[in-house]
Amino acid sequence: MAGVLGAAAVGGRVAWDRGGFGLVESRATRQVRDYRLAERDAEHAELAIARAPAREVGDLSPEPTATPEQLVRRALEAMGGMGRFVSRGDVVVVKPNIGWDRMPIHAANTNPDVVAAVVKLAFEAGAKKVVVADGSCNDPNRCFQRSGIWGAAYAVGADVVLPQEHRFRSMRLKGDVLDEWPIFTTLVDADKVINVPIAKHHNLAKFTAAMKNWYGVLGGRRNRLHQNIDTSIADLATFMRPTLVVMDAWRVLMRNGPQGGNIDDAKDMHTVIASVDQVAADAFGCTLIGQKPENLPYLAMGEKRGLGTTRWESLRVRRV
Amino acid sequence: MTQPATPQHAGVRIDLALVTGGAHDAAHADVDPIPWRTGKVGVVPAIDAVTWSPIAPIAPASPVSPRPPSVAPTTCASGSGAPCACSTTAAASTSTIAAATAVASAPSVPVAPAKKAKKKLPGSGIPARRIAVILKWARRACQVGFFALFMYFLFQTGFRGSFAARADAPVRLPLPVEGFLLADPFVAAMTVLSTHTIYRGLLWSVGLLGLTMVFGRVFCGWICPFGTLHHFFAWLLPSKKGRGASRVEANRTHTYQRVKYYLLYAFLVAGVSGSAIGGLFDPICIAVRSIGLGVIPGIQYLSHRGLGAAQDVQSRAVQGAADHAQDFLAQTVWQSKQFYFHQTWFIVFLLVAILFANRFIPRFWCRVLCPLGAFLGVFSRFALFGMTKDHAKCTDCNLCIVNCQGADSPQGGVKWRQDECHMCMNCENACPEDVIKFTFLPNRRSTVVAPDTERRTALAALGAGAVFLPAARVADSLDVNYQSKVIRPPGAVEERGFLERCIRCAECMKVCPNNALHPAFFEAGVEGLWTPILIARIGYCEFSCVLCGQVCPTGAIQKISEKEKMGEGQPPIKIGTAFYDHGRCLPWSMQTPCIVCEEFCPTSPKAIWVEEVDATVRDSKPAADGGPPAYHTVHLQRPHVDPSLCVGCGACEKVCPVQDQPAVYVTNVGETRSKTNVILLENTNYNQKI
Questions:
Q1: Which domains does chain A have, with CATH numbers?
Q2: Which of A73, A209, A290, B233 could be a cystine partner for A285, CB 3.0 to 4.6 Å?
Q3: pTM score > 0.95 for this model?
């Protein structure tokens, strides 16, 4: 009898609900995922721009003089080779933009050949495993298949991971506007992370590529982020600091971004940009569609937080 | 055990029940023509040596020697096979006291070897023909196989994408996942009556009708996945009262079995008047609807909870196993995210209710309610294959009834009800006296082939079917006061034609990759119960997706191409139009930037366009000097809808960040399929060219 009462008293004390809304101050620490290299080698480029000049064939169709894979290789060589960034036995995450149910010709997702080339280079540098993943906006099955990235990445041996519900975990970003969000764990559980965005127009943010690409790590209802899109982008770029940025500008969406849908909205530029500085990559990228870095507030925020520089010309730039 | 009994008898009975493990045949306690009760075991006339080809005797050196020589186990080694559990119990309950005492009186015999000897049939113990045994096992294999196929099709009713597909390949399902519905002659008959046409694949149902006209209702006993489910539950669920004598009573032919014919007649007449409402009762439709929309998402929800908890365990092995299990399930059984379905609780509740009914009336659904079974029953009268009975040999042991699936009077002394029989062959396998035989071109003298319905009730059913449509239409759901939220899938035909075709099979809802399509409750009127509607707040219509039309078995949603849907060289297919609620929209009323709707708008050019404005906004805090709050100007993009470009997909409504009641929403006005439900004059001009 006394035992039962005693157990009940102890149990009640332990499980006692003290009321309130449960909004206690969390002791969770701020999460930052920094995959950058420690040193910046003085002899290699910090921003490499590989461009295939168009060769006029006939009157209309300009034929590129190089394949996307050749451009990626050239850009990476200028940066000192993939071996600088990927060590033997690394698990490498390649994060393209697979946001929309659009085909490569619409230039809303990263070019599949660019993704495949990055995967190939990572394997050549000795990576144990290369994972390609993104959190899509439209139905992910459709986005992954119709972007061509699923097929291209699979063909060169990458693990392609769809954003399944169980792969998301809540994390504290503790940014200015983004605090606790579900994070696509596949993208952050890695030794090295390579950001492979596509440069494109965005109706609200004007131009987006590398920094905005980190929207793909978020789960939950991301539609709230647009109320303060610039700070959201800066918060995400503060959370995710990639080893390397390989920006696809093979075909660039000039208007009606980020989704496009009209072939006429996109323009062939046959360019691939590699950089260790995601702010500088975006600062250069926006000039492709005629924007200026000073018109993009998220770049200034990124610079202020020490993520990189908006004055891309101040880096060691190499054009190949 | 409910019949009155004297105390001393009751005591004996309880002992008997303990020994034999079941009730004995109470209904026939007074008549006792059974030979082994009178001690005349083995005196039944000799077996026809030509007809019988007993399987090679097993266990000739059986240790059960004290048994009477005439019922030696060698003679009954075959035939009993491995009957289902109910029949073994029943066999035990009707087996002789002598056998029980024989075992009891030989305590020196080890028990285990005795059990290994094949169970003998009671009575003369004449084993079933080898072909009957083979057919019984073939039937079981068939049932398992078709049920597995049905579930596999259901798991495959959804787009999972593939690394092997080219980027520009049109997205289609590789398998005919709606196959069971295409083979359903009740669905075909209903839609033929309502539309006077037969839609594409439904011609397959003629094959099933042909099968029925040769073999009777083999579909019910051998193929139907819902029937297999009921077969299983009718075996699993019966209480102690549902076995033995009560089961014999339950399996006799009852007048309530007529109900399914009345339902069939009513649904067919409703079809003639223009409603495919009978789909509510079609067994395949019920199976797809309740398992696809209720059972699978429910199990997914549970497993997500369970495996999610396992993922949080601080052990790499457990986490890895849970991860892999989730991956596997997401890639094979369900999709990568949890699906929810509008008011699906009611659909599941009905499934549970009809499965539970098996506890009281075995195969309640199949015998009493199934209109497809009734339809096949009507046509089974032409079957070339059927039962003959040798009434003279019947000893009323009732083993056939105990094992009967269709409650079709297989026993001797009465006529066989061919229209009720599922052709499961259990009766011939159970019969120990060589009474029942299934043959081609049987003697029909002791067979009733036509449904036993009453003319008046049948007429009343026809009348009920005929008044359903006017009764539903004078209620305000279609001609007037058409609900704005009844947004039909892309490619759906005009609403009246839609109701003529939609059988509520839920294939479209199951296949929808965005969980956009839901079973309507009463949004589309009583006539539209469980027809598909788009609930954009849960999911929007993926612009390039045409899968719902691909799986629709009746053409309620037409098989459109991506070009037709997205409008290449022709106007796109509209399912509705979006509207802004300026009072809730962030840029319109709260001077806050947003335009997620514009970003998601899939059309090109976008139907949502933005107006650049500089608006005044008041600070939230008073000025530093305590004066009134200051005002400043913000630059905003305010969204507008171009109704001639909007297709009503609902992407804007889905992604609107105003969480509870979105600031942009879709209604069905302007849908391509309707000539009256329009806003714009240009949409009533059918001469225009693009």
A1: 45-319 (3.40.50)
A2: A209
A3: no
